[in-house]
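Researcher: I'd like a candidate sequence for this fold, 137 residues long. If you have to choose between options at a position, lean toward the conservative one.
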């Protein structure tokens, strides 16, 4: 057995009927600042004041925590080898790779590796690209 698999909570995904409605509630009424928005994937990231964990509004996914891992492929395999199951095999996303798994108790987790970089946004928070990570960072 190797060290701990899950590094930290990267985000908590919250399903909303559409991004504008979700932003009207979480940003405008509850005061969470918009960090980024990508209409092409139906998601918007909002800030939490005491953490770098993001509140991610999503129109496509269910309610789930997103865990940061070193490798989405390796983490998914480790879940399967440990009595869990892979719901969605690792796939590419703009900032790296992602997989969806269930633990041995049926709890769904999203596993994210930020191997490509982080979103770059314009003055409105709209995603304009990905800031590349330097090798080894």
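Model: Candidate sequence:
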């Amino acid at each position: 057995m190797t060290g701990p698999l899950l590094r930290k909570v990267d985000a908590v995904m919250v399903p909303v009927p559409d991004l504008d409605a979700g932003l009207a509630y979480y940003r405008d009424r509850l005061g969470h600042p918009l960090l980024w928005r990508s209409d092409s994937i139906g998601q918007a990231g909002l800030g939490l004041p005491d953490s770098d964990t993001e509140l991610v509004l999503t129109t496509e996914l269910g309610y789930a925590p997103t865990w940061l891992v070193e490798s989405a492929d390796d983490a998914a395999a480790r879940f399967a080898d440990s009595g869990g199951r892979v719901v969605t095999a690792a796939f590419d996303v703009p900032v790296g790779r992602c997989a969806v798994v269930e633990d041995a108790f049926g709890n769904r987790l999203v596993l994210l590796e930020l191997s490509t970089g982080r979103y770059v946004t314009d003055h409105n928070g709209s995603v304009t690209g990905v800031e590349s990570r330097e090798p080894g960072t």
